[in-house]
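Moderator note: this is an archived Q&A kept for reference. The question asked for a predicted structure of one protein chain; the sequence and the answer are reproduced below.
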Amino acid sequence: MKFHKVVVAAMLAVGTVGLSLPVTAPAAVGIDIDIAPPAPRFEAPPRPRAGFVWAPGYWEWRGREHVWVAGRWIRARRGFHWVPAHWDHRGRRWHFERGHWKR
């Protein structure tokens, strides 16, 4: 059990660092937890902005609790579309997939 917690903590640490780096490849990173995220908050999307895509806000698991991450503008990538961060219920667990670019 302790090993499992260390692995999850390491995955969260790596994932948190990834939020501050630019996305350079269309890859998704996800985690699985037992605690359901709260209902999404409503954020009115801002007016369209040329050359950018709106990434809506989402609940992020930070080791002990869910924390709301506000929506933000990200630079558009030609030939790709943005897949927003989201939670999926898989069996008895919740799977989080970070927002990512997809062809």
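Archived answer notes: The helical segments are 2-19.
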